Known about the structure:
By secondary structure, this protein is mostly helical. It has helices at 28-39, 44-62, 72-83, 91-116, 123-134, 136-140, 145-157, 161-171, 185-201, and strands at residues 11-13, 216-219.
Amino acid sequence: xxKMSASSEGVSPLPLPxxxxxxxxxxxxxxxxxxxxxxxxxRVLQECEELFLCLTAKRIAENSDVIAEYSKQEISxxxxxxxxERLSIKRKDVDFRFEQGALAGQMLTMAVGxxxxxxxxxxxxxxxxxxxxxxxxDLSQGGDQGRKKIQRLWEKFRGxxxxxxxxxxxxxxxxxxxxxxxxxxxxxxxxSNEYLKIGKSVKLKQASKPVIHGEIFGYFSTPKDxxxxxxxQVK
Length: 235
């Protein structure tokens, strides 16, 4: 795979097979690419293939049961990349990025949910809400580090927040691995596109730009007759 590049509109479509029939017949490697987009939005344009190979090797090393999901060539390439240390991915870094991405997805879900319910809310209010959840000590001491950390992670993961929101939505009532199973890939695509569509159109209170703006990763081209609606219970 050659290096990925964003379109003129700043949207990078996820690499998918040209003849995908939207019926769940998707190769496991494409879900691997989806995982790369979600975890490494700041590195995916330059290192998509390298990241994919290293995560594949780590996944197989940690759970040999998944080896059947990959071709012999993919397995060979993955372990070659790992052996040569062409790219180092630490488990701690992956776990940290997972936490950051998940929070960005929750922030988008909250923004979209309030908009769907016609309840005005600002992005700063959303940040402060999650700051109170994750940085209680900082909040109680009158500090500002929590707000700054949330701002940085939002800027990093904003362009893939619709993918994280779709994962969280799907995981609510389905036993599906991260980011999704082959079986649920089509539903994931519809959910993420819906979050992206709303996120690109919603302007929160006191905001000059939509919730999702700038460079966006992971847009899917889908048949016009395939739609899904979002339902929210905003507390």
